[in-house]
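Problem: given the chain below (249 residues), write out its structure.
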Amino acid sequence: MSFIVFLFGIILGSFFNVCIYRIPKGENIAFPPSHCAKCEKELKWYDLFPIISYIFLRGKCRYCKDKISIRYPVVELLTGLVYVILFYKFGLTIDFFKYVVLFSFLIIAGFIDFDTMEVYFSLSLVGLAGGVIFSIVSIIKGALVKDIVVSMAIPLIIFGMLIFFTRKIKGIGTGDLEILIIISLYVSCKMIIATIMFSIVMGGIVSIILILNGKRKIHIPFVPFIALGTFGAVMYGDEIINWYLNLFM
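Solution.
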């Protein structure tokens, strides 16, 4: 079963590459069919096998021999591995499908932010729609509406303050807050706190390294850190927060 999940992941990862490339350009993600960015030759079905086609083509377009970015197989492999890890943790449950939707959204948003330093509202709407659906499912299963509201309020308060205090030095942007509010629809209060903690720590470490290397003026995209922080929170967030709270109880 894990192989099927992995296969499903790398196939969707191939589609995510299309989204990552086309959404910032304002292009339709369905049409035209996949083609070489340089020679614009439409790719055949046998050129589109995730990971395998890249290996057999030796990372080059079959037609013009232009180099294909290593990003493509990386995104495919990453998506497949994330899906398998989620499957091993949650099995074929609602939580598995919920987090598949969440991390699919974060993979696309993270790579787009890495490329453009932008969060696109059209993509956020998709993540928001999924979050609303799974929140409704959670309420039907017995979750309290107030818990969902509190979970949404946490990033709004914390990151709202960070945005206010860093607005003159181009710190965290409203797009990052937008992403965190969407994430809060998928995870518990403890997990959103852990997500914020992890993402700030990782982003801070990278920022310090850049400063120490004389690259103070380089702006780093924050959504990739949010995505990594969310993954850490989903895997270990509850345990870490409980451990931390027990230190003071």
